[in-house]
Each structure stands twice: as structure tokens, then as C-alpha cells.
Amino acid sequence: MSTGLEFVLHVWPKLETAPSFDPQCIAAIHLLQLSIPGRFAIEYCSNPDEAPSGQLPYLTYGLHSESGLLAIQKFVEKLDGSHKLDANLHGIERAQNIAHISHAEAELGDLVAHYLFSLRLNWYGHTQKLLATELPIPQRYYVPDRLRNSYKPRLIAANLWNIPEIEEEDGKALTGFQRLTGRKRKEKEQKTKIKKVYEREKVVVHARTILDIYSKLLGSKQLFYAHSSRYAIYYNAQPFTLNDEKYFYAGPLSLDIIVASHIQLLHLPLQDSIFHTLLTDHYPTLLAHAAHVRSISFPSHDSFPAIAQSPSASSAFSLSSFSSLFPKSLLWSGKKIEHAPTEEERRFALIRWGFFGAAAVTMGAYMHYAGFFALAANIYVRTLDVLEKQQALAEQEGDDDEDDDEEYEDEEGEFVEADLDEDTNEGGDDDVLNDDA
Fold it and tell me: Least buried of 145, 210, 232, 436, by fewest C-beta within 10 Å?
């Protein structure tokens, strides 16, 4: 459904209270809301194959598209009237900001992937269920597992991939007597439990090492970077004093929205709430930072961007469900463009239809000269001949069956008549004997 807005941001579906289960998609929503508020809509997408590059998020504007958070940010910064989040950074601050962003996307991204894709309770209870609900048939049967397997090498390298089935297969098989007594089973369960607790504690220690970096970087500030009063021009700034100099909190930068997006997903109260408990107990400043970024981007419920309705994913068999198997770049888009087509768009439309027409004529000529049409006509004629012969044979067999039935009835009638004659003769003989007597 068209919303009449300039831009449409395609993101993964929302999970619980988060606007999406992907941190890059959440960061893209914050980025556009802070840069070009009121000029874009959100369309939830469950199949990455629909994206031009096979990755979400991506931004569409007419016939143009930008894939990936960095490409979207560079594209938006070039628009007229857009606010550049990192424009006030300079020198060392800009270099540090880029380094922190890379670190956050890698390390915090691993924690989010572990939380949503590796932990079995969260995967089967939340992430997979969400994808299976949103995806149409047949994508719902293979896209979730394919998405999870795409994170597996990354999490194995970070020692954050935990598969309970492999741990349960360790050890020798139990005999019938051991199953009866249960002694060996209890010992094995105890060892497995200790191993799981140890692996879980390793994950918590690894997470605390990463979160400590951003907790120290944030300190007691509301945002990661604070600038002097000459930079406080876009948001309602709140002053604070540092080294006897008055500073102001400026608006969120790209580092703020990226870290806040990851923290929001890690704090979701899922079935296995390992990171939710960790953040609640030890990192209240990071939670306050994420809430502050959300309050600036969306001060009220009405400030959330418009939702562009996508085709229903719950439909069973439909043409749209099978067309989503192919990238949008290979299919003709039926979406209406609200603005008047430009000269370049009209020229590309003529070229596109000319190409389709030339391809159709070429295919028809090839099939004609190659004899496909004559072959098809010959097959059609022979098929009709075979059908006529079968029909004639069936009629002939029906006539023969009727003749056989009539002959059988005649023979039966003669047999009955013969019996009657014999009975009559026997009766006559008896009468003759009686007369003689």
C-alpha cells in the first residue's frame, strides 16, 4: 500500500517491544527519524531475497534503492534539508566515533545474535515463531533455518554458539540395566548440567567485558559525546559543568543510535533472559541511555513513522508468495509511483518494454524456424487420432457385449423349453400306463 511519502525503509519484523529484531534495522529507523522526520515510511519485510542486495535494511526511493546502514546514512546526508548526525565531530572525535561504531557492530552484534539465534529457548520460542508467522508459504519452511545458519560461523568463531544436542551425544550408550537403575543417567545429567553452567558463565563474562567498555565511555552522561554551546542548535540541550566549563548535551550521534539499538534487543524479556538480567542488575546507565535515545527519536506514540502495509504473509498458496522467491530486481513491480515520472524514467520504461518485445519476437521466430510449432501441431493431430481410435474400439466392444447377452438369453430360453417338453412327455406316459391298468 502506497503512503505517498518520499522514502520507504524496509526492515525485519518487530519483536516484542522492539521495532525490529535486527539492530541494524532499528538503527536505520532512528537514523531516518532524526535526519528526515516525517518523510519516510516503514515496511516490514520477512524475506531478505526481496532486497536488491539480499540484505536488510534497505531504502527505496522511486526506482532507486540503498542497502545497508552505512549506505543509507551516506545517501540521507546528501538530501536537502536533512540533519547530519555526525557533522559536529572533527579530528580525533570522528576517528574515535568510527572505531567505536565498528566495535559495537561486531561485539554487541555477536551478543544479539547469540541471544536471538543461538539460545534454543529464544530461537524456538520467539525468533523462529515470528519468522514462520510473517513469511508466506513456502518461504516459512526454509528461510528461518537459512537465516540462523548464516549466523552460525560468526558465533562459532566468537565461542557463542551452543548446541545442546551435541553435548548430549557425548559418552557411551547406556545399557538396559543402567537405564533401570538410573545411576549412570544421573551422573551424566549432573556432568552435563555443570558443563552448561560453565559455558553460560563464560558467555556472561564475555558480555560484561564488552558492556564495561561502553559503560565507562558513557560515564554519567546521557549521550556519548558532549559539545560546547555552539553545537547545541538542533535539540533541546541540557547543560552540565565539566572542568569549570559549561557544556551541553547535543542530539544522538550515529554511535548513540547503534549502541542503543543493540541494548534494546539485549534487554528484551525473552524465555532465556540471560542478558536482560545482566543489564538490569549491573548496567542501569546503558539502559537509561537507550531509553533517552528512544525518547528523543520518538517523543510520543504519534511520532513513530507510518507503516506501509505489505502483502499478507499468512496467505497459503498465492502468486505473491511464489513471486517472493525471486529478487524484486528480476520482477516487474506493480507499485504505483505517486510522483509524475521523469524524463529518465519514461526513457527507461520505453527501453524496458522494447527489450521485452524484442525478446518475445526473437523467441517466436526461433520456435517457428526450429519447427516447434509444426511439432506441436503434429503431436496434437496424432493425439486426436489416438483418441478417436480408442473411442471407436470402445463402441465396438460395447456392441459385441450386447450380442453375447442376446445369444445367452436365447440358449437359456431353448433350454427351458426343452425341459418343459420332457416334463410333458413324462406326464403323457404316466397317463397311458394308468389307462392300461
Answer: 436
Amino acid letter, 361 = V
The pLDDT of residue 402? 59
The model's pLDDT over 59-97, given as tens digits with 9 standing for 90+, comes to: 998 888 888 899 999 999 888 888 888 887 778 888 999
Global confidence as pTM: 0.63
Which candidate, 315, 317, 295, 316, places its Cα nearest to that of 304? 295
Q: How many CB atoms lie within 10 A of CB 146?
A: 11
Q: What are phi and psi of 41, to 5 degrees?
A: -125, 160
Residue 403 or residue 213, greater confidence: 213
- The residues, ordered by sequence, that sit 6+ positions from 81 with a Cβ below 8 Å of its Cβ are 36
Enumerate residues 6+ apart whose C-beta is below 8 A from 68.
24, 53, 55, 57, 58
What is the distance between the alpha carbons of residues 148 and 128, in angstroms, rounded to a whole number? Answer: 9
State the DSSP string of 396-418: HHHHHHHHHHHHHHHHHHHHHHH
Question: For 184, what's the count of Cα atoms within 13 Å in the CB-facing half-sphere?
Answer: 10
pLDDT at 207: 92
The Cα–Cα gap between 319 and 312 comes to: 12
Q: Could you report the per-residue pLDDT of 308-350, keeping only the tens digit for each? A: 776 544 444 444 444 555 554 444 444 444 556 777 778 878 8
* Least confident residue range of 144-158, 214-228, 349-363: 214-228
The grid cell for 90 is 572533527
Q: How far apart are CA 25 and CA 13, in angstroms?
A: 9
Q: Of 261, 253, 223, 278, which Cα lies nearest the Cα of 105?
A: 261
Q: CA-to-CA distance for 129 and 153, rounded, in angstroms?
A: 22
Asked, as a colleague might, if the bond just before 13 is cis with ω within 30 of 0, I would say: no
Query: What is the per-residue pLDDT for 158?
Result: 87
Determine the average pLDDT of the residues in 262-291. Answer: 92
- Closest by CA to 283, choosing from 209, 198, 203, 197, is 209
- Amino acid code (one letter) for 224: F
224: cell is 556519548
The sign one gets for the Cα dihedral 288, 289, 292, 297 is negative
- Which set of grid coordinates corresponds to residue 100? 567505536
CA atoms of 154 and 166, how far apart (whole Å): 18
Distance (Å, whole) CA 12 – CA 304:
16
Q: Kindly report the backbone phi and psi dihedral angles of residue 224, in degrees, each rounded to the nearest multiple of 5, phi listed first.
A: -70, -35
